[in-house]
Amino acid sequence: MALRHDGQRRTVYVRETIVGPPDMLGLPRMSGSSAAKRAYGSGSLVEHRGAWYGKWRVGDRQVKRKLGPMRPPGSSQGLTRKQAEAALRRLMTEVRVVVPEERMTLTDAGGRFLHHVEHVRRRKASTVQD
After folding, report:
1. What is the pLDDT of residues 28-63, one digit of tens each?
2. Counting Cβ atoms within 10 Å, is residue 89 exposed (0-12), middle (13-18) or buried (19+)?
3. Residue 40 and residue 18 in contact, taking contact as beta carbons nearer than 8 Å
4. How many CB atoms lie within 10 A of CB 106?
5. d(CA 66, CA 49)
6. Are 95 and 56 within 8 A, CB to CB?
7. How far apart are CA 5 and CA 53, in angstroms?
8. What is the pTM (predicted TM-score) of this model?
9. Closest CA relative to residue 18, chosen from 65, 67, 56, 70
10. Residue 15, SS3?
């Protein structure tokens, strides 16, 4: 478990689990040592506010997706850890993250936003000028 502060004077406990056997992930088997760090892309499960979240890397980017609610003890609703791990593996194969070709400057982003506000959201010119 890791301690994280969420900015509201509360401490949030987060538990991460690396998903997938080394053979499936293309990693060599470690004999006797369970503390070895796995390569990027192997994925991990995170428990947060009663839900399962998956984290993995695509290239240099980290991807986070909500997998579903956690199963309370004695209930049939929600996902167990094994079900969440299976959902994460399935999602990792389905989701493709498009990396932007080039970085956008603040001026370009502002121009695109103003165009969006004026033409897509159809705001008045006086609102766009503000």
Report:
1. 555 555 556 666 567 889 999 999 999 988 877 888
2. middle
3. no
4. 7
5. 11
6. no
7. 18
8. 0.50
9. 56
10. strand
